[in-house]
Amino acid sequence: MAHLLGAEGLHLQYPNKVVFDSVSLGIDDGDRIGIVGRNGDGKSSLMGMLTGAVTPHGGRVTRRSGLRVGALEQADILGDDDAVGHVLVGDTPEHEWAGNPRVRDVTAGLVADIDWTAKVSTLSGGQRRRVQLAALLINDWDVIALDEPTNHLDVEGITWLAAHLQTRWARNTGGLLLVTHDRWFLDEVATVTWEVHDGIVEPFDGGYAAYVLQRVERDRIAAATEVKRQNLMRKELAWLRRGAPARTSKPKFRIDAANALISDVPPIRNNVELAKLATARLGKDVIDLLDVSVSFDGRPILQDVEWRIGPGERTGIVGANGAGKSTLLGLIAGTVTPDSGRVKRGKTVQLAMLDQQAGILAEFEGDLVREVVGRLQTSYMVDGREMTPTQLLERLGFARDQLSTRVSDLSGGQRRRLQLMLTLLAEPNVLVLDEPTNDVDTDMLTATEDLLDSWPGTLIVVSHDRYLLERVTDQQYAILDGHLRHLPGGVDEYLTLAGRRPEALTSRTEPVAAQGLSGAQQRAVEKEITSIDRSLAKLSDRIAAKHQQLADYDQSDHVGLGKLTAELRELEDQVTELESRWMELSEQLEQA
Length: 592
Known about the structure:
With about 600 residues, this protein is α/β, with parallel strands linked by helices. About 40% of the residues lie in helices and about 20% in strands. It holds the Pfam family ABC_tran.
């Protein structure tokens, strides 16, 4: 594959910190790279150096001649006096941009609800962000760099963007750099993950799922424990690293092998025990919304909502921007009064909300973090053991040296950590999280999810972060056309009901050539895949037996050992050949 963009010996430092020291890396045609790491470790700085927005203090960035690089930064760069249409297509005549499939696809996916004649100054923050993203994607680029592109996008918009980026370029062409905290989106789009930490950039093959598996392997190797299990995991991860991201389907015997490797890992949370604790704290009555309707300025927002929230329930809420999610939370919290119906609240309910405004921090802005912590209760129960507020902060990724920072000087992610800690230490028995992933990195999200796994109460989460919803909640509801609807099929069911299924969102711009299989051909491919699955399973058993035979064989008989080793290599070659054919057939089905 042709080289597009690279870095040689990059050095970047600030007065109090060396961000990167002698970093070298490259981007080739076909690379789809996700960048992860803690806030402040240099993800955006790395992207800025590669795109030319940040000048390194040492080293150099190389580009292929004539390379076109487009970048979406987190900063709002739109001019307030510009019309939306001018930002998107400039002075291009309508007959030209209207006939461009990419322009039609991007505008339909991101800005269909925005008036093109409106001034940018009249748009909300979310609308401005979508216009800025659309203006970038409309143009032709060899490399696109996106810094938190899912900010202000709803679930449908994120799903559309993933499908667009998956098919924007033909296979093995173009390059994508992506900084995002949205792990579902990262898994859908990225085929390589760069982890930025401690002044270096460490590459991992695959998207977020593959990155997590490989990071676990790295940590286990560093600890030098579970040697046999590590060896098995290493072989399994070698399979996951091939081809598409780790979430892509694999032969059944490989899935069985992976399940065996994690068979002794306990469930992420004990739902039965948590339900008992929640009932003890809450009783049977929590919050009931009984035939509730709400309208603003004569416009109906929620209609005939019937929802009985029970003790220990963990519920995720999805819906398009403006669908009424915040209104629903207001009903639960008691800040919104319904036009009809009633809200019934249990006598023991103690509700706390982690909202997007960080209002809980307002009274502490002039204080040092350690002063805030010092005024709190002395302990908090997590996983059956007591933790001090400082230990709780550390579990959320807060460094001890940050305790001497004033609250007003904290970064967005640090403020979010402190806000979550203060919310939990209030010991509510009903916890509402409104877009909790804003301004946080993937490590913070993982730590938050780990903490919530042992939280014994009723949990309600509103988020566009699909990964988070599916990770911390046990059921999901959607707001559709003003009605609250249960989603037994999760977010996928919501996308289907909303008419925005991923397959319907696939960009029509420069599509990857499809195989065009007929019904008979597709059945033949499926039959061959099934046959390969069976063959691979048999070969797996034969290889295991051959390994055992080698282990039991007389180690002094070098001739016999050589023969057995040759037989083992032949079996492994057969596996490699069949796996390659399986991947080829699988890709044919995906493209058909």
